[in-house]
Amino acid sequence: MNGRKDGTRRSMLLPAAQPDHPTCFNQHRGVRSTVFEIMNLLILFTVLSSTLFHTTASAQSSQNATTFALLYGYPLLAWQNYYAPIINEVGANTWYHNRNLQTAADREVVKPNVDTLYSNLVYDLPIQNIEITIPDIPADEFKLFSFYDPYGVNYANVGTSGFYKPGKYLIKPYNRGNGNSAVGLTNSTSSRYVGVVNTPNFYGTILVRWGATSSNLPQIHKYQDACSAFLVPTPDAIVGPAAPPLLQSLIPVYNDSALPAPNVLNLLVAFEPPNPPPQLAAAGISAWNHSYTPPPNVDLDLANATALRQALATTILPSTNKALNNNWTLLAPSTLGIYGDDYALRAAVSLSGYLALRAPFAIYPTFNNVSASNPGNAGVIFLEADEAVLLTFSGKPPVDSQAGFWSLTAYGGDLGSYHLVPNERDVYALGDRSNLTYPNGGRVYGGNSTGEEFQILLQPADVPPPANWTSNWLPAPSGGGNVVPQLRFYGAEEPLEEGTYVYPKVEKIGVITGQGVTVPATGAGSSVDVVGGSVVAAVVCVLACVVLLG
Ligand SMILES: *[C@@H]1O[C@H](CO)[C@@H](O)[C@H](O)[C@H]1NC(C)=O
Ligand SMILES: *[C@@H]1O[C@H](CO)[C@@H](O)[C@H](O)[C@H]1NC(C)=O
Ligand SMILES: *[C@@H]1O[C@H](CO)[C@@H](O)[C@H](O)[C@H]1NC(C)=O
Ligand SMILES: *[C@@H]1O[C@H](CO)[C@@H](O)[C@H](O)[C@H]1NC(C)=O
Ligand SMILES: *[C@@H]1O[C@H](CO)[C@@H](O)[C@H](O)[C@H]1NC(C)=O
Ligand SMILES: *[C@@H]1O[C@H](CO)[C@@H](O)[C@H](O)[C@H]1NC(C)=O
Ligand SMILES: *[C@@H]1O[C@H](CO)[C@@H](O)[C@H](O)[C@H]1NC(C)=O
Ligand SMILES: *[C@@H]1O[C@H](CO)[C@@H](O)[C@H](O)[C@H]1NC(C)=O
Ligand SMILES: *[C@@H]1O[C@H](CO)[C@@H](O)[C@H](O)[C@H]1NC(C)=O
Ligand SMILES: *[C@@H]1O[C@H](CO)[C@@H](O)[C@H](O)[C@H]1NC(C)=O
């Protein structure tokens, strides 16, 4: 995160997780778990006909409930990784502003965007409401106030592509006051407020995205400083169980030395929503007595492996991946960010990109060219030192005409730990705010724009292309390696979501060096050594890092 000093990031109270050689660990546990599962099935089969049926069925249902609880609770690890340092630095109910864009030198956030500055506020509402001010920002500047519960559900938005009106908003739990209100943004009965945001839980966050250009950071800082937050004491009671203030509820729950699964179950105790699904109680989680009591005979490793397998399985289902065209796909466009009772998707997304936005606020298409004959990780392209990727855009992507924008960002690095690519010019992304040119030399944006094709060259940072390519050159890692081209569309118009816009054609080519001379690729046939989806990579990451989609 920007603006935070290294020394203050790790807290005594809420320490961040440690890496613990996760890759070897995962493989080991995975194999063991499969064996356990087969044994369990055999045991179940053997005892079905015996008088022990009831005991086994109840052990089985505790086991299932624990698997469910983990699937339900895994996003809380992402919450812990991202928000614990912020809570420790500024506390709850206070704005925390990032003042600078990320650079290749920043390694804390995986796959950071270089399109927006963030502001964060962690709200803590067991005994009070909070009032925030949303400043007056011109329509042609992108701003989006997104409200999330700790599970990463984006239940309300105020800003570009949605409802936007400057002024004061009241943030309160949906079940405080006269009966239960609908979760989300509602009208206020008081003239003091533009709107009321009814939160699904006592705890959650507001994440603000401010559209950044090369020159507007000072202006964004003014907007950030114009955001206020005040506690509003309330005599109104909560309908349902009370909860302790955030810091108090968190004190005993997170153990830096423990494995993810017990941490998830303990975090669930602290962040259990009102009206939790019954499986949480069956798994031994009780918000009422603030404890996790493991039921007898539960194999946590098995439950953990089963839950993660279910989460990963959902992301590779064809039905979850909407095919756009030219091998670009969109993960669950109708449910991403909302999830409903799709806890598997919710968990999977929290492992690969916490705090996703819903369409049309933003969409994040993935280039997926992985198949049996071309194994690798979805989204990842492996380049030899003399290879490049040429992306041919059919025309300007259709984004919100007032304040929408788009970018293609390049990430490099190891599986599960992708960062901005170091390069001499500090170019990490290209899009509508950069000086892209058409092949005839005209500017794609800001000139006499036409609807024709333009190209972006993703080529190693140590192989400069000819001068006419410079403004369309997005540096890939020097010497080649894994590169992840990430498209982001903020304020996406329907053709982008529906796939009626023709997405960029993506071709692996030899590097372009001389006067337009293309060197034939020698790396044809090379493949990445790890098979699986990008989410698999992210599971490695969730132990120790923060991934924000954008
Ligand atoms: C537990 O889950 C398994 C597999 O999902 C299922 O077959 C079984 O019926 C469940 N058992 C109980 C007691 O819910
Ligand atoms: C708020 O009131 C306006 C009319 O004043 C109405 O158009 C709008 O739908 C209402 N919004 C909600 C969330 O009730
Ligand atoms: C944290 O977890 C480790 C490893 O499981 C355990 O040895 C230790 O007792 C735990 N600490 C607390 C305070 O529970
Ligand atoms: C659960 O899965 C994660 C990720 O694969 C792994 O690191 C951990 O050891 C597993 N087991 C537990 C008990 O958390
Ligand atoms: C917590 O409450 C549950 C029931 O809600 C109960 O089964 C469990 O024993 C309690 N744990 C403690 C430590 O009191
Ligand atoms: C990528 O696109 C090509 C051409 O449309 C198609 O033949 C191929 O099956 C696609 N690959 C994947 C993994 O969808
Ligand atoms: C784009 O070009 C203009 C004029 O040539 C220059 O002033 C500006 O800094 C460039 N912007 C970027 C992002 O390179
Ligand atoms: C650069 O010039 C070559 C040769 O004329 C042309 O093929 C290519 O499209 C140009 N690239 C850009 C980005 O204008
Ligand atoms: C746009 O086109 C007009 C007419 O052809 C020309 O006069 C003008 O200079 C062009 N502007 C730019 C920025 O290329
Ligand atoms: C897509 O996969 C095909 C093989 O199926 C391969 O020839 C091609 O280079 C791949 N494209 C990219 C950009 O990796």
From TrEMBL:
Keywords: Membrane, Transmembrane, Transmembrane helix
Ranges where the DUF1254 domain occurs: 93-226
Keyword rRNA-binding: no
Residues passing through the membrane, by range: 35-53
Domain DUF1214 stretches: 389-493
InterPro entries, sorted: DUF1214, DUF1214_C_sf, DUF1254, DUF1254_sf
SUPFAM superfamilies assigned to the protein according to its UniProt record, in alphabetical order: VPA0735-like (SSF160935)
Protein name: Uncharacterized protein
Organism: Saxophila tyrrhenica
